[in-house]
Amino acid sequence: MRVRQRAVTWSLGLTAVLAVAVTLSAGIGPVRIPPATVVKILLNAVSLPAGIELTPLSVAGALQLPLPTLQWQSAVAYPVDQTAETIVMRVRLPRILLAATVGFALAAAGTVMQGFFRNPMADPSIIGVSSGAAVGAVAAIVVPAAIPFGLGLRGAAFLGAVITAFVVYLIATEGGRTPVATLLLAGVAIQAFLGAVIAALQLYSGEGLRAVVHWLMGHLGNAGWDDVTITLLIVPVLFGVLLAYARDLNVLLLGEEAAAGLGVEVERTKRLLLAVSAVLTAAAVAVSGVIGFVGLIVPHMLRLVVGPDHRVLLPAAALGGASFLVITDTVARAGATEIPVGIVTAALGAPFFLYLLRSREVHAL
Amino acid sequence: MSDPPLVVDDVSVTLGGREVVSNVSLTADRGELVGLIGPNGAGKTTLLRAIRGGVPTTAGEIAVTGQSVSSLSARAIGRRVATVPQETELSFGFSVEQAVAMGRHAHIGRFGTPDETDREAVADALARTSLESLVDRPVTDLSGGERQRVLLARALAQATPVLLLDEPTASLDINHAIRTLETIRSVVDDGTAAVAAIHDLDLAARYCDRLILLADGDVVAAGDPDTVLTSETLADAFDATAVVSQDAVTDTPRVTALPDESASTSDEA
């Protein structure tokens, strides 16, 4: 089968899995809602453009210009229980969609980082993005006065992540070249340093300690439509850029010397992949805290299933990561008391990954 | 008649403060296989890297199909020059066909997908290297000789006017070495200009149209294998005593290296 066909087939299949996961997840919680009702609620929420209406717009008092505006209208209106509709639309769906977007972003960035570093241990936070976000977030909790421009927790986390990635890149770059081994070590060193900063901030956090620990463990609760909208605006665009470089990523796996010989602008491609993955990860971490494991294990799971070609692997891993985080977050909130989703991702993901590792003929990465 | 596809004019390369290649000139015409020979560290690999724009030159000019390499993008070079590396990372379980298809990278646009030309080039490269029966095998499962063939096929799939080979037979047994060189020879005879760094002097003499003997970055001798491979030039370049005779079977020069103390007897041979 041609590559494009394989990519489309896997993407459609995994999108279907994601749709099922979202529907089932929206029904699970203190109030059980049957999947059929969830589907009706979701369909009710879908608006379609019903037509274009011209509204007069006054210009300079006298002149009136017709301004076209799209008229939106619900496509269907199933009669459903109002309480159920509120629970799904206001409480559960934002959280589920945020889980899907964060999982999508982390798994995509993890796939790219593993290919980029040619290292199976690489994950989205390898160049210090998560540590930087954590410093920003923890600082915003412990010493809110230190955060400039009224950025808030999320802004501080995002900024911390992007700045850290950039610093690591600058440290590892000399004469326009960024050797991946240097980048890896610089990332590890900066992570260790920022770990110390986070520990020190925690020590003096006083009453904020609970909030700090909560943030550091990763969380998707309290998600609102604002978070969903922002991440949904950022993530698909960045993912599109990564997807356009999927073939370059394949060639980079051969080593930089060989990749250059095959016509890849190596340093420029590396810079772009690094920057896009860092911002993608930063966007995810800023809204959800540090959720480990998704960006490390999901790419490996999908690589075992669909193979190493990034044109197929990248969309498959991203969609797989979305489903994975939706499912694990549902487990995390399904019990009597909610557990941090990071604990669930590791507790569920590790055994499943080990099962895949043993049950298939595994080639080196 | 147009210029040869590859013209290296008075090129020097400095790496880490040391001049590794000094004022080297060479050309390779269509249908010509030029052999780079010389001791380890003579600058063969560095010269090949300079030709494909992998290291900057400190002096001189390298032109590929009439255009200066320093002015071309990596992608443009990738469509003009293919390299068979000494060894490469072939991990990540790509299939043989996928690995060879990567040779087409420079020919496919960022948002494009392989077209009929690309598929034909890959099929042709697989056929020339007798890899058709292995197309679906993961490259990680291959033997050393098969991996070398994959690297050659990848370069052939690039379908470039200039082909560079860095020790294409270094890790091969004699049977595979001959088969590889026969393949290279047939590709060159079809109109490619090729430069190959080759350790084995006998094989170099047998398959190359011209030889360039490098030592310490300098050209010691250049020309027909018969004129380049002499006891004097080899003594100069390799600092070793060697006898050059004519091979009875292939009728090409044959080099027999001797221990130093037998120098006097070799003079009579």
UniProtKB/TrEMBL annotation, chain A:
<dbReference type="Pfam" id="PF01032">
    <property type="entry name" value="FecCD"/>
</dbReference>
<keyword id="KW-0812">Transmembrane</keyword>
<comment type="similarity">
    <text>Belongs to the binding-protein-dependent transport system permease family. FecCD subfamily.</text>
</comment>
<feature type="transmembrane region" description="Helical">
    <location>
        <begin position="156"/>
        <end position="172"/>
    </location>
</feature>
<feature type="transmembrane region" description="Helical">
    <location>
        <begin position="225"/>
        <end position="246"/>
    </location>
</feature>
<dbReference type="GO" id="GO:0022857">
    <property type="term" value="F:transmembrane transporter activity"/>
</dbReference>
<feature type="transmembrane region" description="Helical">
    <location>
        <begin position="96"/>
        <end position="117"/>
    </location>
</feature>
<keyword id="KW-1003">Cell membrane</keyword>
<dbReference type="GO" id="GO:0005886">
    <property type="term" value="C:plasma membrane"/>
</dbReference>
<feature type="transmembrane region" description="Helical">
    <location>
        <begin position="339"/>
        <end position="357"/>
    </location>
</feature>
<protein>
    <submittedName>
        <fullName>Cobalamin ABC transporter permease BtuC</fullName>
    </submittedName>
</protein>
<feature type="transmembrane region" description="Helical">
    <location>
        <begin position="272"/>
        <end position="298"/>
    </location>
</feature>
<dbReference type="InterPro" id="IPR037294">
    <property type="entry name" value="ABC_BtuC-like"/>
</dbReference>
<keyword id="KW-0813">Transport</keyword>
<dbReference type="InterPro" id="IPR000522">
    <property type="entry name" value="ABC_transptr_permease_BtuC"/>
</dbReference>
<keyword id="KW-0472">Membrane</keyword>
<feature type="transmembrane region" description="Helical">
    <location>
        <begin position="184"/>
        <end position="204"/>
    </location>
</feature>
<feature type="transmembrane region" description="Helical">
    <location>
        <begin position="129"/>
        <end position="149"/>
    </location>
</feature>
<keyword id="KW-1133">Transmembrane helix</keyword>
From TrEMBL, chain B:
<comment type="function">
    <text>Required for corrinoid utilization. Probably part of the ABC transporter complex BtuCDF involved in cobalamin (vitamin B12) import. Probably responsible for energy coupling to the transport system.</text>
</comment>
<dbReference type="InterPro" id="IPR003439">
    <property type="entry name" value="ABC_transporter-like_ATP-bd"/>
</dbReference>
<keyword id="KW-1278">Translocase</keyword>
<dbReference type="InterPro" id="IPR003593">
    <property type="entry name" value="AAA+_ATPase"/>
</dbReference>
<keyword id="KW-0813">Transport</keyword>
<dbReference type="GO" id="GO:0005524">
    <property type="term" value="F:ATP binding"/>
</dbReference>
<keyword id="KW-0547">Nucleotide-binding</keyword>
<feature type="domain" description="ABC transporter">
    <location>
        <begin position="6"/>
        <end position="241"/>
    </location>
</feature>
<dbReference type="Pfam" id="PF00005">
    <property type="entry name" value="ABC_tran"/>
</dbReference>
<dbReference type="InterPro" id="IPR027417">
    <property type="entry name" value="P-loop_NTPase"/>
</dbReference>
<dbReference type="InterPro" id="IPR017871">
    <property type="entry name" value="ABC_transporter-like_CS"/>
</dbReference>
<protein>
    <recommendedName>
        <fullName>Cobalamin import ATP-binding protein BtuD</fullName>
        <ecNumber>7.6.2.8</ecNumber>
    </recommendedName>
</protein>
<keyword id="KW-0067">ATP-binding</keyword>
<dbReference type="GO" id="GO:0016887">
    <property type="term" value="F:ATP hydrolysis activity"/>
</dbReference>
<comment type="subunit">
    <text>The complex is composed of two ATP-binding proteins (BtuD), two transmembrane proteins (BtuC) and a solute-binding protein (BtuF).</text>
</comment>
<dbReference type="GO" id="GO:0015420">
    <property type="term" value="F:ABC-type vitamin B12 transporter activity"/>
</dbReference>
